[in-house]
Design brief:
The complex is a heterodimer. By secondary structure, chain A is mainly beta. Chain A is built from no helices and 12 strands. In chain A, the strands form 3 sheets. In chain A, strands 2, 5, 6, 10, 11 and 12 form a 6-stranded mixed sheet that branches. In chain A, strands 3-9-8-7 form a 4-stranded antiparallel sheet, with no helix packed on it. Chain A has a two-stranded antiparallel sheet with strand order 1-4. In chain A, a hairpin with a 5-residue loop joins β7 and β8. In chain B, 0% of the residues lie in helices and 50% in strands. In chain B, the strands form 2 sheets. In chain B, strands 2, 4, 5, 6, 9, 10 and 11 form a 7-stranded mixed sheet that branches. The radius of gyration of chain B is 13 Å and the shape is globular. At the A-B interface, β5, β6, β10 and β11 of A face β4, β5 and β9 of B.
Chain lengths: 114, 115
Amino acid sequence: AQSVTQLGSHVSVSEGALVLLRCNYSSSVPPYLFWYVQYPNQGLQLLLKYTSAATLVKGINGFEAEFKKSETSFHLTKPSAHMSDAAEYFCAVSYNTNAGKSTFGDGTTLTVKP
Amino acid sequence: ETGVTQSPTHLIKTRGQQVTLRCSSQSGHNTVSWYQQALGQGPQFIFQYYREEENGRGNFPPRFSGLQFPNYSSELNVNALELDDSALYLCASSPMTDRNTGELFFGEGSRLTVL
């Protein structure tokens, strides 16, 4: 079975500050990991994915995440927050590239203060 | 390239009724997955359809059923609605081919309220 835990349901940062959203996973087989962003009244959009290649993954809008097998983590970071980054972020895990059966975390709401 | 579209966007039903939600997959995608997103939670996998057949199911009762049509569009049907069925229902499509990069393409969802 696979599961995802996102630590911190709400994170607040100042504009220009570092963004760190935490994700830990549990999987009995090598995982495929994803971060999605959801803006109000919209569907989810892929930010980045790890599919067993480079452990440091770069995504859209300046976000990146590092896969750490020893810590079973896939934390999302961005060096400098922008007001437009305010949204809900979801970490997800799947067994393979058939992401259609992914397991999602409960999400982290990011607030960016001016 | 046309994205994933869902209808209706909002609807209100009463307990015991039945509902049908519809999804058109993104152009070139032959796989559709349905998710339920309750308020304050992440999406929960309901089932996936590929080649007009169910290809995996999450922990949802049989009153949740679906269809996929030859044009790859899909329906989610829920019978005997319960209050806890109130949620945002998300449809996501992807290609089940060597072009599959593991990304899901989501629609904007259908928000169901059960009274």
